[in-house]
Amino acid sequence: MLSIARITKTRGLRGELQLFSLFNEPGRFEGLKHLHIGGVRFAVSRLRIADSQRLVVSLKGVDTIEQAEELVGQDACLPVDEIPRYEDEYFDFELQKLRVINDDGEELGSLTQIIHTGAKDVYEILSPGGKRWMIPANHEFIPEINLEEGYMLVRPIPGMMDEDAL
């Protein structure tokens, strides 16, 4: 299970909930059929996008403000394989510890940290010798990520991963 939103408050008297999305573009959750909250699976009877970060949800069986208030502060979750994804979208936990290789199959190290900068993520790579490099997360430098085989292919430009690069 992965948290997709935090229940922040109730809306109205009939059990509606306001959720703060933990994902960019909460519109990906339109058409959602169920949510898991506190280990309980709830059917979604209505979901609408309130703004760029918030959703308003009605759940079957949550019909009063009192029932809704019991859920405030909890996370709304989904199984990872049910979360709508965009092409080439990965979750941090899937990328952590991937082997990092180059075009020749040479192992350069492992992905140890993902830095979310706002504009573009940056991956920290730790070499077997203890050297750290920062690689921008884009197709120019990282043309392939293979979760099944556990590697990330990196094509650094000259100087990017030299010993004195950092």
Automatic annotation (TrEMBL):
An accessory protein needed during the final step in the assembly of 30S ribosomal subunit, possibly for assembly of the head region. Essential for efficient processing of 16S rRNA. May be needed both before and after RbfA during the maturation of 16S rRNA. It has affinity for free ribosomal 30S subunits but not for 70S ribosomes. GO terms for biological process: ribosomal small subunit biogenesis; rRNA processing. The PRC barrel domain binds ribosomal protein uS19. One of its GO terms (molecular function) is ribosome binding. This is Ribosome maturation factor RimM. Its main location: cytoplasm. GO terms for cellular component: cytoplasm; ribosome.
